[in-house]
């Protein structure tokens, strides 16, 4: 069989009784005109679904299916009510959660504002105390001379440093004073024991 015969539909389809393409198109056009357009629009409006105009039996079957579905939905309202109750409880819980989050956020913002204010006040107090320390050192130098700070064991540069740790310095100074007091007490005990 030649390629041209296959393309022309030669012997390949010769044994089959196939209708002509023109007859298929004419039959389709005549069958679509059997149902008037008004009926199609009314069915479309009433059922909310498109209905095949060519077969009226399928449209009646679809109507029966729709009726069964509507009956089935009228039988199951408890499921719908339960679902609605669940959704309502879920909405209420979500609302409560949003309110708690909003309150928590407001409290957090208030706490941040309070801490910011407190921090600013402490920085102002620290600056004031540093200025006071420098002022007192200046007074000490004026009253006792330029070497007064060295004799007192105070270094001016420590206090002028903004990162200086006053608490550690104070704790260190107290520990040194306690050590010296303990050493003096031990020396006085030794002196008394030597006398005896």
From TrEMBL:
GO molecular function: DNA binding; DNA-binding transcription factor activity
Keywords, comma-separated and alphabetical: Coiled coil, DNA-binding, Nucleus, Transcription, Transcription regulation
UniProt keyword annotation of Cell cycle present: no
Location of the protein in the cell: Nucleus
Region (Disordered): 48-80, 175-196
Coiled coil: 105-139
Signal peptide: none
Residue intervals of the BZIP domain: 80-143
Pfam families tied to this protein: bZIP_1 (PF00170)
Classification via InterPro entries: bZIP, bZIP_sf, bZIP_transcription_factors, Leuzip_Jun
Taxonomic superkingdom: Eukaryota
This protein's GO CC annotations: nucleus
PANTHER family, sorted: CYCLIC-AMP RESPONSE ELEMENT BINDING PROTEIN
Name of this protein: BZIP domain-containing protein
Organism: Monosiga brevicollis
